[in-house]
Design brief:
This protein has 4 helices and 4 strands, in the order βαβαααββ. The protein is α+β, with helices and mostly antiparallel strands. Strands 1-2-3-4 form a 4-stranded antiparallel beta sheet. Helix 3 runs antiparallel to helix 4. The mean pLDDT is 95.
């Protein structure tokens, strides 16, 4: 059984999107992470080195969002998942990218894409 580590509501500012105004002006993106991690080694040792350092992870995720603009949130979500999976202790990553200021000509609360990715070779 895998434990779940969640970091929710990571606010980032990026220049992603297909429209010139999105690339030029940028907008807020909000990222939610849920990671499958075995936390028993850290629970036994009480040592940060035995678990995923979510503070460092959030710094890396923010950098992934705030640099190198892409057109689609699908591409951005995949990039974030890849960042999460660089730590081999992360068995899987569920990434939600919220784009609350998406250029839609209607009243709406949010646009969200959620993906789940696993470490290579973990699928049966």
């Amino acid at each position: 059984m895998t434990d779940e580590l969640a970091v929710l509501g990571i606010e980032c500012f990026g220049h992603h999107g297909v429209f010139d105004s999105e690339r030029r002006d940028g907008q807020t993106f909000v990222v939610d992470l849920v990671l499958g991690v075995d936390t028993s080694p850290a629970a036994a040792s009480d040592d940060l080195r035995d678990t995923v350092d979510y503070g460092s992870l959030v710094t890396s995720v923010k950098a992934a969002v705030e640099n190198d603009p892409v057109d689609l949130i699908e591409t951005l979500a995949q990039r974030i998942a890849s960042v999460c999976l660089t730590d081999g202790r992360v068995e899987w990553a569920r990434v939600s990218v919220h784009k609350p200021d998406a250029p839609i000509d209607a009243t709406f609360a949010d646009v969200t894409l959620t993906i789940t990715r696993e470490q290579e070779g973990t699928r049966d």
